Structure formats: C-alpha cells, structure tokens
Amino acid sequence: MMTFEWYLVAAAILLVLSIVASKISDRFGIPALLLFIGIGMLAGSDGPGGIYFDDPYLAQYLGVVALIVILFSGGLDTTWKSIRLVFIEGIALASLGVVGTALLLGIFAHLVLGVNLLEGVLLGSIVSSTDAAAVFAILRSKGIYLETRLRSLLELESGSNDPMAVFLTIGLAQILLEPGKPLISLVPMLVQQLVFGFVVGYLFSKIGLYLVNRLKLGYSGLYPILMIGLTIFVYGVTTLIGGSGFLAVYLTGLLMSRSDFLHKRSVIRFFDSLAWLMQIAMFLVLGLLVFPSRIVSYWQPALMLALALMFVARPLSVWITLLLFRWRIAEKHFVSWMGLRGAVPIILATYPRTMGLSNSDLIFNVVFFVVMTSVLIQGTTVAASAKLFRVRAEAVNETKYPIELTPGIEWSGVLRELVVPANSWVVGKAIYEIHLPDPYLVILIARGNDFVIPNGGVVLLAGDKILGLANQEYHGVVEELLQRKA
What we know:
single chain, mainly alpha, Na+/H+ antiporter like fold, Alpha-Beta Plaits, 2 domains, four-stranded antiparallel sheet, two-stranded antiparallel ribbon, 6 strands, globular
C-alpha cells in the first residue's frame, strides 16, 4: 500500500516532468497541452505508471478551481487599451461564435454518431470554446508576432468565451434530464447568468481595488493571498445567486487591470505562476482520467467530427460573426484556424458523466479525441498558417525596466515610457537644455540594450526611451515637448 509520502513523490515527479516538457514545447513547437496530458496518460492505469483514477467529480472540482485562477489571471494580465479596439467583435465571437460552432457541430454529431440532435448540440457546446494560450506560447517560441489588433481579438475571444460554453453545456444537460423542459427556457437563464455575472464582476473589481489600496498590509506577500480569497469568493457568490461565476471572475480581473494598485506587478507575476501550476495539475488529472483503450473504438467518428470542427463549424461561425466588421479575408481565415481547443472542453465533458446522462461515456471519449486532434493539427501548424495568411508583424521590443512603482493612495503619479522621435528638436540636446516641467522626474533612460542613469548633462539621442515619473497631466506635457520637430 502506498503511503502519503509516496503520493507526494509521485506528484513531484509528474510536476517536474511537466515543467521539463514545457521546454520541449518551446523548442519544437509542440503544444504543451499535449505533453502535459500525455504525461498524465502515461502515469494512468493504461500506461506504465499504473495509477488508477476514475473520479470525474474530483476532476471536475479541480478543473473548476483551476479555471477560476486561470480566468482571473488572464483578465488581470490583459491590456485594456488594446482589447477595447476589438471589444465588440471579440464579445461577438465569444457569444454568437460559440453558439454557431455548437449548433453546426451538433448537426454533424447527430449525423455521424447517431445521437439525437440535442445530444449532438450538447457535444458541440462542450468543444465550442477556444484556448489561444497555447497558440501564443507557440508563436513566442517561433519568434512570430501578430499585428496588435488581430492578437487582441484572439486574446479577448479566448479569455471570454468559456462562460458561454459552460452555460450551454449545463443548460442543455439539464434539458436532457428534464425532457419536457422547453429550449426557450434557456433564454431567461442566459440573461440572468450574464446580468449577474457582469454586475458582480463590476462590483467586486471596485471592492478589490479598494481593499488592496486601503488595507495597508504589513507584508507584501499577503496581497496575492488576498486576491485569491477575493477571486474564489466572487465565483462562489455569483454561482450561488444564479449568475455566471466564470464571467464574474474574468471581468473582475479585466476591470482591475485598468487601474494601478499596490504591488500590481508582483500580484500579476504570482497569478501567472499559479495559473501555470493550475494548468499543469488540471492537464495531469485529465490525463489520468482518460483510458486510451476506451477511446480507440471511437476514433473514426471522432476524427470526422474533429475535421468538421476545424474546416466547417469554426470557420463558418467566425465568418458569419465577423460579417459586419472590417477584417481582411486572410485575417478571418487565421482567426478561424486559431480555434485551438484546450482543457476546458475536457472538463466540460465530465458534466454529462456527473449528471448521469445516458451517452456520457461516448461524449467524454469523443470530446477528448476531438480536442487532442485539434491541438495536434492546429497547434503544430500555427507558424505555417501565420506565414500562409501573411498576418505576421514586426517584433516589438518591450523594454523591461529594473524599477517598479508602488502607487500611493493620495498621489496619482505613474511611471510611463516616452520615446524620443528621430526628428525631435531635443535630439542632441542635454536634459537641462529642454526645460522639463519641475513635477516631472526622469528616472531612467533606455538606450538600445543599455540603461543610462540620467542627470542634467545627459545628451538625448533619437530612439531613447525615457522612463519618467509624474501624474498623467505632466506626462502629456513632456510628450508634446518631445514631439516638436527640429
């Protein structure tokens, strides 16, 4: 009999192997999702590890906790300035696009698997959400950059489409359990989930900012813990009152990202690490939950559904949703191909099992195969598709300064980077000669790969990045000063 210490050793080995696998993912462009779940499958009862795990309830609970952290981290790390340019079409893809994908794939599932149409749409709903995190990881590893507007669209869609997929999955499963319940009953349920999710997310983004900035905790390490408590509370309260907990959590993080608050960078870094831990744990558990021997018998219809999803359902839903928006044909093709599936569909596939639906095993195994096929084919062709559709952009080198500002409560001063234009009149002049406003303080100058400690005699060159400290008004004054032509 294995003792507790042996379980700890096994968990540590799986965790370290997953981290090593992420290095392989970066080097060879293989989606980390495949490697993480692969390690879990090898450790499972059908693999050499021999660990028996068949508890969909535990896997579902872990998946929910992981998604709470991942969604909040994604919202907190999102740049509001970039996504507001694509907010309407991003939300359209996250809602109408998800519904369209679910309906189209549901029809294919009905024809291919022989299940009734409602069960087919349930399966389509389960695999309707996308996971662009793996795509961006591959793009970074290959040194491929996307135009800001296109990248923001993918980021917003993938971060906000999980709540709709969750709603459709649970709603349709409940209707299957109560055959007399009309489909129209989903409409007021959807409105309630969205309204409560938006209201709670908005309120707790304000409450979170107030608590972080006013509590003045004695230890900086307590701020991330405070945010964990807030995030879990937001999900729990929203779900209990009948709202979308996942939407509320994502919106809380997204709205908080718009403002500066105490230890913001350290909180973001903490949640980034925690989100990775949650992803690895979630993928490993899902890998353990899968029995490859049970999936083999479904490979032919599942492959047909995977191809239908990649080449028909996803592209049609994207094209119809973006019909009224100005996007190039190549960009629409790229967005369609980037409908990469992740762990969320596999987690959602546990709901039919825990709710006792008749075809739950069929749905789970087919969904798992569809997700793995999508990741394998689409995930490994991200770089090729970016080249084919000509959506690559020049790399933007963001300077990482060795300085972090902890914003105060009574003062609105912020650190901001300003670039000296090549045709600016300040080029070749010393700092003291350009007469900066007294409330503006030059903290550091980034010049190429080096940093210059400023003093009045430092001569400014074209392309210098000035890191200044002041309130927004004086940042604007200095920016106008730099923009004057020689």
